[in-house]
Putrescine aminotransferase (Halopseudomonas yangmingensis), 457 residues
Amino acid sequence: MKSAETLSTRRLQELDAAHYLHPFTDHKSLGERGARIIERADGVYLWDSEGNRILDGMAGLWCVNVGYGRSELAEAAYKQMLELPYYNSFFQCAHPPAVKLAAEIAALAPAHMNRVFFTGSGSEANDTVLRMVRRYWDLKGQPGKKTIISRINAYHGSTVAGASLGGMLPMHEQGDLPIPGIVHIAQPYWYGEGGDMDPEEFGLWAARQLEAKIIELGEDQVAAFIAEPIQGAGGVIIPPASYWPEIKRILGKYDILLVVDEVICGFGRTGEWFGSQYYDLQPDLMPIAKGMTSGYLPMGGVIVADRVADTLIEHGGEFFHGYTYSGHPVAAAVALENLRILRDEGIVERVRTELAPCLQSKIARLAEHRLVGEVRGVGMLGAIELVRNKQTRERFPDKGSTGTLCRDLCVANGLVMRAVGDTLIMSPPLVISPAQIDELVDTAWKCLDLAALKLGV
Ligand SMILES: *Cc1c(COP(=O)(O)O)cnc(C)c1O
């Protein structure tokens, strides 16, 4: 077969439809429409095979934190491939990139977390979490503590354990999930589910579902509570201010582990290195991935608190768990260089002091649009709720169709946003400029106008 550059868009779409099974894709409609082929990228922009320039308001899939086209990351990979392209960390071996990366991540993490287990992805990180949490309680002599409490509409990946820990009901239906020992409580999604309660009242109510579930199951059966600081794939759901303090109060009362899934919030997205720092949480385990390498290579991990690591190490013997690519030297070298860029260029600091306030104040104006019921955001995350009636929060009929309409209009007009039902979400690279934020907001407004016209409102 000829190299990709010489193939026309049409031909690529045909081959794609014939051979490539995509993740999270309805292939019937993909075959009818033809995939959009993305060929290259630089900074915050993508170019498709038709030459269209598109502002990537999602940083790929929440991951390209330092933006596209950073040659330092390519050079780090190239050098490491020549030096040592692969070796494992099984059987009492290690290599410099993984060791240095573990030490650097430990230095950035909250003070009580000093060890890292590496994986190839966020899903593998959450599989690791499940096994570590259960192993921990076995070693503590409390083998009854097996159940993990998660939340409806959480996202923790797509492996069997990841999808089970997640609370995506359509995913559960397709795989006879969740596996036993994982239960789900309500999510702190005030706009969608708050009913007549005010946001703070609702935040307390949602947090207290955790306590009710612990009491229902018995503390001696519950191993951990897992949550994203801010739900990402669920629709950028930002808990009311009352939520996390109440969760902390409850966790203080019961002896269960806290797993904070930092796959999206980690590495600067909130303006802190980790979402746990933004919300002042004390996690026992933090799954990470995505922004860890800015997506340039696949890599994930679990940052482990001393309390858990010490137990596994002192009393555990061998932990029969790991992946061929755990701590992969090339991925680790790229992650190290990515951390250097984030640090030396003051990117996380700049998000906190300049870019997040800029993004949040500018997207807030979209709330004046007649289709928009609420705009919310933290750091470089944002969500726009599309509604028929601003006062009653009433949606348009045919759930999801308005979100899809707006999303498609945005892409056609040079902006990637994602639609979760009738919520538009964004998560741009952390290096987007204020002028590019203007471009994002102006394009979004224009597309909301076009959508309103089509909907006849
Ligand atoms: C993306 C994501 C995952 C899964 O990561 P993969 O690398 O896709 O396996 C897990 N948790 C959260 C919060 C995510 O956003």
Remarks:
- Residues 434-455 form the longest helix (22 residues).
- Residues 90 and 322 are 8 Å apart (CA to CA).
- The chain has two domains: 36-66+346-455, 72-344.
- The radius of gyration is 22 Å.
